[in-house]
From TrEMBL:
The keyword Lyase applies. It comes from the Eukaryota. SUPFAM superfamilies: GHMP Kinase, C-terminal domain, Ribosomal protein S5 domain 2-like. Residues 11-182 form the Diphosphomevalonate decarboxylase-like N-terminal domain. Pfam families: MDD_C, MVD-like_N. Keywords: ATP-binding, Lipid biosynthesis, Lipid metabolism, Lyase, Nucleotide-binding, Steroid biosynthesis, Steroid metabolism, Sterol biosynthesis, Sterol metabolism. NCBIfam families: mevDPdecarb (TIGR01240). This is Diphosphomevalonate decarboxylase. One of its GO terms (molecular function) is diphosphomevalonate decarboxylase activity. The keyword Cytoplasm does not apply. Belongs to the diphosphomevalonate decarboxylase family. It catalyses: (R)-5-diphosphomevalonate + ATP = isopentenyl diphosphate + ADP + phosphate + CO2.
């Protein structure tokens, strides 16, 4: 019986406050703009992945996600496998005593403990965990930056899940993608009172995938060019300054405006893409009511490619924000909804960023 080599890891989701939307190179997953996110590292929203390899495995690489076999022949997964194997081969070439793991078939087993592909950044956690699990298996000396370059080719947003805390993804300028990597703006401990409330409006798979959606937006939206070339670069600078200064008013305002701008370009896409629904819009209203009552910005919503809301706030405002959401959610039939939706409004859903 041949030996089986194995390594496991987990990777958390990240939720962008400045959105990545648009690729200048779809093959290498090079974005049209930089982006910035918060990694929800203390939350339950993570992917657990075990990577193993063995000469005794069937010749094809295999990937199981939540118990279901996935197609690994896609260019993105193949790119990650290829790059990681090449790094392992370099190690093996320099030390002949190392087992020849790069030549063995891979078996990847991943579990998400949250809805897959429902706009909750599942591909981000998924590819980040896949890349790190294989890097661990191969005992690669790669840095998180190196791994972010590889994970980006699996799913753009995945590069940001290789770091904790407040994380940027520099769009880069190189045509080979060598400088399109994630970087840490600040560790979670720098601004530890940040919290994220996740409202699972719908656990259904999203109608339009991010990849398809953003390509159609780039091709058809007249709002898109100014978003990518002017609005986002300005907001990236504002957001980094807000994080450095722990200025929630600016952090919150820019977060909400960037979510609105992203969804405006989706609506401006032809044919239009609607990710928000009535429940999402009601969540926006609740945030507005909370901020009006407080007389300042204490809560900030953001939505990815789906209807689920993520509301950022500081721990000191937990009663105000989470309390009002609870009250609002309790009063409305529509929240639980005909879709059999799950609305997380209790303390369990308060994810510590
Ligand atoms: C709206 O990273 O899922 O969540 O690179 O095609 O896999 P691909 O796209 P993906 O897109 C994420 C889009 C977003 C915004 C963000 O996370 O920045």
């Amino acid at each position: 019986m041949s030996e089986i080599y194995r390594a496991s890891t987990t990777a958390p989701v990240n939720i962008a406050v400045i959105k990545y939307w648009g690729k200048r190179d779809p093959k290498l997953n090079l974005p049209t703009n930089s982006s910035l996110s918060v990694t929800l590292s203390q939350s339950d929203l993570r992917t657990h992945t075990t990577a193993s390899c063995s000469p005794s495995y069937p010749s094809e690489d295999a990937l199981l996600l939540n118990g279901q076999a996935q197609d690994v022949s896609g260019a993105r997964t193949q790119a990650c496998f290829r790059e990681l194997r090449a790094l392992r081969q370099t190690l093996e070439a320099s030390d002949s005593s190392l087992p020849k793991l790069a030549s063995y078939p891979l078996r990847i087993v991943s579990e998400n403990n949250f809805p897959t592909a429902a706009g909750l950044a599942s591909s981000a956690a998924g590819f980040a965990a896949l890349v790190r699990a294989i890097a661990n298996l191969y005992e690669l000396p790669s840095s998180p930056t190196d791994l972010s370059r590889i994970a980006r080719q699996g799913s753009g947003s995945a590069c940001r899940s290789l770091f904790g805390g407040y994380v940027g993804w520099e769009q880069g300028a190189a045509t080979d993608g060598s400088d399109s990597v994630a970087f840490q703006v600040a560790p979670a401990s720098y601004w530890p009172s940040m919290r994220a409330l996740i409202l699972v409006v719908s656990a259904a798979k999203k109608g339009v995938s991010s990849t398809t959606g953003m390509q159609t937006t780039v091709a058809t939206s007249s709002l898109f060019p100014s978003r990518a070339s002017e609005t986002v670069p300005r907001r990236m600078a504002e957001m980094q300054k807000a994080i450095q200064e722990k200025d929630f008013e600016t952090f919150g305002k820019v977060t909400m405006m960037d979510s609105n701008s992203f969804h405006a370009t989706c609506l401006d896409t032809y044919p239009p893409i609607f990710y928000l629904n009535d429940v999402s819009r009601a969540a926006i209203k609740v945030v507005e009511v909370i901020n009006e009552a407080a007389g300042r910005i204490v809560a900030a919503y953001t939505f990815d490619a789906g209807p689920n809301a993520v509301v950022y706030y500081l721990e000191e405002n937990e009663k105000l924000v989470a309390g009002l959401f609870k009250a609002a959610l309790g009063d409305k039939d529509g929240w639980k909804g005909a879709r059999g939706d799950k609305v997380e409004s209790n303390a369990d859903a308060l994810q510590k960023a």
